[in-house]
């Protein structure tokens, strides 16, 4: 995930990796013949404990969501989503995106990358409704997922997105692009097609997420 705001500040890069040895491995064995009838077998004896690789530690965030300088409506949306504390990538980059730094974030699937960039970008739009943001996703499924998460966080805030992906009606997408929107979320092929049709003007975007 690469978030770029068009300003003079340089990129910040964060790398989060967790490495475990033998995590979740399970060995099953049979009790020897001649063992005592009814003898209890402790399953824990046959399960390898996860061994944390050198350098891994239990993560304690430096921030609470309330610590970030974001709109209270977003704080309520975060609570409604069920988020309690920021994940590592959220903890590290949300404040930098709010401060309009360019950032590069690297983290595994399911670690909250989408919310890490959506929350500060929605906040940016709430502060200035003229902001326009382009989010480019590598697959149709990911673009739709990002759009759904955006709609959840931005519910009731009068912030609008257009999801531009293949396999869906381009006519409907063109129709939606004629109305006011703040975000375009799309895949490269469909975006290229809409740019060629002059329905998307790249010069209008203040922020790009790749």
UniProtKB/TrEMBL annotation:
Q: Where is the signal peptide?
A: none
One Pfam match, given by its short name, reads DEAD
| A single GO cellular-component term on record | cytosol
Keywords from UniProt, A to Z, are: ATP-binding, Helicase, Hydrolase, Nucleotide-binding
Asked if the Swiss-Prot or TrEMBL record annotates the protein with the keyword Protein biosynthesis, the reply is: no
Instruction: Name one molecular function that GO assigns to this entry.
Output: ATP binding
InterPro entries recorded? DEAD/DEAH_box_helicase_dom (IPR011545), DEAD/DEAH_RhlB (IPR044742), DEAD_box_RNA_helicase (IPR050079), Helicase_ATP-bd (IPR014001), P-loop_NTPase (IPR027417), RNA_helicase_DEAD_Q_motif (IPR014014)
Q: Where is this motif: Q motif?
A: 63-91
Query: What positions does the domain Helicase ATP-binding occupy?
Result: 94-210
Q: Which residues form the DEAD-box RNA helicase Q domain?
A: 63-91
Q: Which protein, by its recorded name, is this?
A: ATP-dependent helicase
